[in-house]
Amino acid sequence: MDRYPPIAEHGLVGDLQTAALISSKGVLDWFAAPRFDSPSIFAALLDHDRGGYFRLAADGDNVTYRQLYYPDTAVLVTRFMSPDGVGELMDWMPPNTSRRPSDRHTLIRGVRAVRGTVSFSLDCRPRFDYGRAPHELHADGHSAVFHGPDLSLHLQGTFPLERAGDDVHATLTLDAGQVAGMVMTVCPPGDPAPPAPTEEGVTEELWSAVGFWQSWVSAANYNGRWQNSVRRSAIVLKLLTYAPTGAPVAAATMGLPEQVGGERNWDYRFTWVRDASLSVRALLDLGFAEEASAFTTWITARMRERAGLPGERLQVMYRVDGDPRLDEEVLDHLEGYRGSYPVRAGNAAMDQLQLDIYGEALYAMCEARELGLVQAGYHSWQGTASVLDWLVHNWDRPDEGIWETRGGRKDFTYSRVMTWVAFDRGIKLAEHFSRPGDIELWRHTRDTVLQQIMDRGWNEAEGALVQHYDSDVLDASLLLIPRVGLLAAKDPSWLTTLDAMDRKLVSDSLVYRYDPAASPDGLRGCEGTFSLCTFLYVDALARAGRLRQARYAFEKMLTYANHVGLFAEEIGPAGEQLGNFPQAFTHLSLIMAACTLDEALDAQRKP
Predict the structure, then answer these.
(1) Nearest Cα residue to 476 out of 449, 502, 450, 508
(2) What is the mean pLDDT of residues 99-103?
(3) Cβ atoms 109, 91 nearer than 8 A
(4) 348-357 per-position pLDDT tens digit
(5) Please, are residues 155 and 124 in contact by the beta-carbon 8 Å criterion?
(6) CA distance 340 to 256
(7) E strand or H helix at 145, and its extent?
(8) For the chain, which terminal residue's Cβ has fewer other Cβ atoms within 10 angstroms, N or C?
């Protein structure tokens, strides 16, 4: 077993309240429960010896591994091929569609021999509370229970289990056509044990999960050139959305490094207002109204709960239930992925000032409401209007910006761009639904913001809009400018900005978000190219009419997806995936770029 497989050598399964990573060799090495942001039960990705894992795989020295998803689903299939036979492992979590938070979550692992004879082995080694809490084990025949301090983990199979210290081991041999299964259930201590699995019951659960995912993704209105990539990205965004509240998390994991061995290792299992708003906006492009409605309700509640109180109207990020407390701690006992230390749980950036988040929130809400997917109720509108009234007096301040730099506040141009978006979309909502508000003041402020951006964010020497005022550093976040409409896609000022990014930030079609050496961000080390920015670059190229360049860049970027179509946050110098995995930002921007590029290519073909 590899101590630390490449980040990209994983697939994702989930039940719409939490998720697990399973390596291409059948090892579950990341799982937190009962929610995405809960302490881990399996975290071998962050410490092979202390984190815990659940391996179920074929034995032998000459085994070849392949992994795929059952078509249009979140059911993960791992194949094992050897001279003696071919075996398959199917992993999935039954989707929880109740919309009620649950402390009970199930992962089903089914194996079968497809050809010949296949020997499998199982090792289950849970480590509760990020590996800090001990557990007690009770094993009996085909079942075992691991009792942690706050959760119990039940294993129930169709084959016998053996105790191995405080862990569980098993072996089994299957001939062609034979099947076996193991069901893992996590629940509070004292909850009744799940029923023993049967072959018929496992099969029924499998086809139920397949039916759910295929039905859901078939509702997408995308009929373009990149069906597989877009549908897979949509499923990823759905898997990363906490169904009881409609709040998407930024990624399924924590602590995976932006530079192996470096300190840029963050916890991404929370709902960033920015990431979540853009995720929902991407799903809206595909016609998923239910997700937009749920998130609009969630973000409106966050706006209303701060109305009339001092301080900011929105926090940068929240827990999936809206809890604003995300205190950051360093898990000293974990060595980190391949020695990438420190490992952090929680996120101190929650207290940062990032003024762009109001723009992303209004950007998503406006689209949802203009499409008739969400109604602008009077009381929810009051929360939105109060945010805009507050922003009139609070927009012109230095902040930490979209990239959450820890090197001090600056007048970031992107923050001003999204402030302009907040006012622009707020005005449109008020006029579209005839809602009360100081529209003339909002319009005056919007125009003032634009004037300031062009006066102070423009660098004459570069011929471009730059990262922050009084600097010459470029920033790829500004690639969103033509999409949100601050400048037209072929405005001369925008085209020279795009050209400057080509020169300074683009390497073989991959895009760096900025140059940390030129604009210190308060952190040691470097990072790879930022996959979100690469897809935004494609979007901007397509809007500018540079379709050959856009399509080639898009096709090249798709080659960096892993074997099942998933992306992390960044691409390293050798083409490796870096950062938390899979990353919502990357997959939402893939959807945006595909839709924009398809539309532009189709328009080019028309007479």
Answers:
(1) 502
(2) 95
(3) yes
(4) 999 899 999 9
(5) yes
(6) 8
(7) strand 143-147
(8) C
